[in-house]
Amino acid sequence: MEPAPDFQVLPTIGNADHYLDVAFRAAKDATDMMRTGLGRKTRLDKSKQIEGQRISKVNHTLQRMLNKILETFPSFDRLPPFYNALVKATVDYGMLKQSLGAVQWAAEQSGRLAGAHIAEIRRAQKMEQVNPIRTQYYGRVASVIKQINKNFLYLEDCRRTMKRYPVIKNLPTIVIAGYPNVGKTTLLKALTGSAPEIAPYPFTTQELMLGYFEYEGTKYQVIDTPGLLDRPLSDRKPAEVHAILALTHLASLIIFLTDPTETCGYTLLDQDKLLASIKKEFKQPGIIVANKADLEERPSTKGVLHVSAETGKGIDLLKKKIQEKALKEEKKELNSES
Ligand SMILES: Nc1nc2c(ncn2[C@@H]2O[C@H](COP(=O)(O)OP(=O)(O)OP(=O)(O)O)[C@@H](O)[C@H]2O)c(=O)[nH]1
Ligand SMILES: [Mg+2]
Fold this sequence. Notes:
There is one protein chain. 54% of the residues lie in helices and 12% in strands. By secondary structure, it is an alpha/beta fold. It has 2 domains: 7-163, Up-down Bundle (Four Helix Bundle (Hemerythrin (Met), subunit A)), CATH 1.20.120; 173-337, Rossmann fold, CATH 3.40.50.300. The longest helix is centred in the N-terminal third of the chain and has 31 residues, at 93-123. The protein binds guanosine-5'-triphosphate (GTP) and magnesium ion (MG). The site of magnesium ion has 4 residues, from α7. Guanosine-5'-triphosphate (GTP) binds at residues 178, 180-186, 226, 230, 291-292, 294-295, 308-310.
């Protein structure tokens, strides 16, 4: 996956009145300074120059601000798949594209109107024609900008949502799934040896927990997804499903964590159902890990790795398995590319 785009630094989007205020004020300040420096020109020429400058300053100020909005929103067609899926799950993608299109349109309209009105000022023969032409440009450009006010407001909404996107590093990534209380967070700590970083996930109550470890020279990222991959997807509302499926783009590998002691409060049968439901959605390789091995001796089941996240038993073996699976996955990718 490519590195995360910088959603955190998207600048605040103002409303139509804000952009007009800034542009008109800039024009006024610029021409106030000009008045004294125009020397021996006729009154008509002075007026033409000042009013033409005002139009030009309003236009350039607007275009600079509008283009900045366009430049700072990421190019959605080229987003890494995880962020692309998040955008589609959290905002109205059509409306977002339409709003950016409206900003582009307004910048072009401002330029077109400015050109036409400046040309008209140049042609003016009389003093009293000049001011009304500038006033007309102000009115028309204000109406263009006000017309897209709802788009500014929508872009600001999107920005606030996107600011809450988690920043995910571009590393082989292990996602942990499993019912509440099976020990996901404890396993994350056992693997990474440290307290997890918390990253927001753009849904009210959920956040991601992130940790990192190095094994034989490779750095891995581990993600615990409390509240997301801890129930079968069939129990979810459609909006939640989209957000959860965005996670499928992150994982190089998935750990299905179970608690065969059932002290978590869920039967092993239910836990297996969750595993099956998640497996269907993720194409990545998975490792089934049975936790809390310190509580009771279990006959080892084929293909299941028994560990204790609490005591650290089996954690090194798990790291080795992670490395093997991740390497296999890398080879597969190489082969499919050739
Ligand atoms: N005996 C024992 N207890 C464990 C082990 N791993 C976790 N626990 C305990 O199980 C409880 C739940 O652990 P968590 O790591 O918080 O579980 P979780 O899956 O992150 O739970 P949610 O965040 O609610 O989904 C805690 O009381 C842990 O101390 C283990 O290997 N052995
Ligand atoms: Mg937890």
